[in-house]
Amino acid sequence: MNSSLSQHVLSGMRPTGKLHLGHLHGVLKNWVKLQHEYRCYFFVADWHALTTEYDNTSVIAQNVWDMVIDWLAVGINPGEAILFVQSKVPEHAELHLLLSMSTPLSWLERIPTYKDQQQKLKNKDLSTYGFLGYPLLQSADILVYKAGLVPVGEDQVAHVEFTRELARRFNHLYGREPDFEEKVNDAIRKMGKKNAKLYKNLRKNYQEQGDDDALSTAQALVEDQHNINMGDKKRLLGYLEGQAKTILIEPEPLLTKTAKMPGLDGQKMSKSYHNTIGLREPPESVEKKIRTMPTDPARVRRTDPGEPEKCPVWQFHQIYSDDDIKNWVQNGCRTAEIGCIDCKQPVIDCIIAELAPIQERAQSYIEEPESVRAILAEGGEQASAAARETLEEVRQVMGLTYR
Ligand code: TRP
Ligand code: SF4
C-alpha cells in the first residue's frame, strides 16, 4: 500500500432492506476484520438509494434503520469504526457538485453499471440526471474522506477506477500552483541534506524506472518529516508522482476474497432472486427454507444416489461444515446411505447457531433505539469533521474562498 496518509478505509451500502447471509459472508465479516486494522468509515448510502427509489421514498428510512442495526448486530463496533448516514454529511453533495463541473459526460456514460442497471431495472425510468451521476456521487463519498482503500465487490471496481481518474484530473486541474516548482525545492531543502538527496534519488528511480518500492519508500520518508508542514508534505508527495500537489487521493479497490454465499437455489444469494436467508430469520423459518431447498434432481427416491457437485446444499456445507461432515456428505450422498433431510440437518444447525447471537444483539438495539441514534450522531460528527476539512481545501484550490 502507498503512504499512511491513504490508510483510510471507506465503504457504503445502499439501504435496500434487511440484510441476509450473503451480506454477512460477502461483506460484513470483512468489515468487522478491517475495523481492527484501519480507520474505517462505513456509511448507509441513502442518497444512492434515491437514484432508483426516487418515486418510492417511504421505505428508505426504515431500511436505513434496519441496516444500521444489522451492522451493529454482526459486530461492527462503533468504538472502532465510524458509522454514519450519507445524507447527514452534506459535504458529499457539495463535492459531488464541484466534481460534476469537470467530469466529462462520456466518462459517466461508459461505466458498465450505467447501461447494465438500466437494462436490468426496465420497470423504472432511470434516464435521470441523478442516476447517470451515481458513480460520481460514489466518488465524492470516497474522495471526501481521502480513503485509500475501498472494500467492494467485483461489480463496483469500475466505480473505484473512475474515482481514481477523477482524483487525477482534479489534482491536475487544481493542484498546480504558479510557484509549485519553487515551493517544492524549498520543501526539499527543509528535509536536510541527507534526506533531500535520498528523496531526489527515490523520485528519479520511480519516475525513470517505475520502481514502486522507491515510491513507497519516498512516501514514507516524506511522512516521517517532522519539521515540514502539511502543505509542503502534499507538495512533496505530489511531486513524486507528477508535477502537481496531491489534493484528492486516488483510492484502490479492496476486493473481498470471501467465498460467494450461495442462495437457496444455488445461484448467488440476492434479494432479487428471492433465495435469501435473512439475518433476522427466525429459526423455524431457517429450518423450513433449508428443508424445502432443491437438491440433486437425480435423487428422486431415497435410494437413488446423488452427486454433491450438482446440489446447492453441498455449497452450504462448503461454507459451514468441517472435513468430517463434508466426507460424510460426499460418501453418503453418492452411495445413498444418507437422505437429503439427514444431509441438511447440520447446515440448519449451523445457520441457526450463527444467527442466534446476531439476533439477540439486534433485539437489544431494537429495544434501545436511543443508543442507535447516539451512535449515528457520533459517527456523523466524526465524518463531518473529516469531510469539512477536505472541502475547505477543495474550495480553496478552486478559488472559492471569498474573504
Ligand atoms: N454503490 C455501492 C453499492 O451499490 C454503494 C456505495 C455508495 C459505495 N457509495 C460508496 C461503496 C462508496 C463503496 C464506496 O454497493
Ligand atoms: Fe444434496 Fe446432500 Fe441430498 Fe446429496 S444428500 S443431493 S448433497 S442434499
Written overview of the protein:
This protein is mostly helical. 59% of the residues lie in helices and 6% in strands. The protein is built from 18 helices and 5 strands. It has helices at 21-37, 46-53, 60-74, 91-100, 105-109, 112-120, 129-132, 134-143, 157-174, 180-190, 193-209, 212-223, 230-241, 283-291, 312-320, 323-335, 340-367, 369-397, and strands spanning 8-13, 39-44, 82-85, 149-152, 252-255. α3 packs across α17 (340-367), α4 (91-100) packs across α8 and α4 packs parallel to α18 (369-397). The longest helix has 29 residues, at 369-397. The relative contact order is 0.13. The model is unreliable at 1-6 (pLDDT under 50). Tryptophan binds next to β1, α8 and β4.
Describe this protein with a few key phrases.
403 residues, mainly alpha, Rossmann fold, Tyrosyl-Transfer RNA Synthetase, three-stranded parallel sheet, 18 helices, 5 strands, elongated, binds tryptophan, binds iron/sulfur cluster
Poorly predicted segments: 1-6
How many structural domains in the coordinates?
A: 3
CATH topology of the largest domain: the name is Rossmann fold
Strand content: 5-15%
CATH architecture label of the largest domain? 3-Layer(aba) Sandwich
Mean pLDDT: 94
How many beta-strand elements?
5
Topology:
Blueprint: E1 8-13, H1 21-37, E2 39-44, H2 46-53, H3 60-74, E3 82-85, H4 91-100, H5 105-109, H6 112-120, H7 129-132, H8 134-143, E4 149-152, H9 157-174, H10 180-190, H11 193-209, H12 212-223, H13 230-241, E5 252-255, H14 283-291, H15 312-320, H16 323-335, H17 340-367, H18 369-397
Parallel strand pairs: 1-2, 2-3, 4-5
Helix pairs in contact: 3-17, 4-8, 4-18, 8-9, 10-13, 11-12, 12-13, 14-17, 15-17
The chain binds tryptophan and iron/sulfur cluster (SF4).
Residues 10-14, 45, 48, 138, 141-142, 150, 152, 156 line the site of tryptophan.
